[in-house]
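Sequence in, structure out. Go.
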Amino acid sequence: MAETIKLEVVTPRGAVLSENVDIVTAPGYGGEFGVLANHAPLLSTIKIGVMSYKKSGKDQQLMISGGFCKVADNRITFLVESAEFGGDIDVDRAMRAKERAEKRLAEALRKAEHLNQARAEAALQRSLARLRAAGHEPS
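Output:
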């Protein structure tokens, strides 16, 4: 049996996941990174995106948004704003959110409203990450 690493995902609402896994891949601000068992200590900021992990040969995906990741003592802990399992995501709702965010972004760009532009971009990134985690590549 291959070595595993303890994966924990925590949001302000509480623990979302706590399992021993084979590998974790996450969206850091410096780029996507992977972590295996016995990884060197690491601290990274996390951006909106899809975190994936493999357990017993099966891939799982979570949409995560904004936070931090710490690797130490054969444990990887994510402290993020939100996390949703791909299978729990309502694809139709995520598509509607994507369309709303695109409209808000276009309007903010047209009016040069920088705060609304940043909010719309974040909403768009969350909806796109939800769609990717649910296995639907956004168009």
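Check: The first helix runs from residue 91 to 111. Helices lie at 91-111, 114-133.
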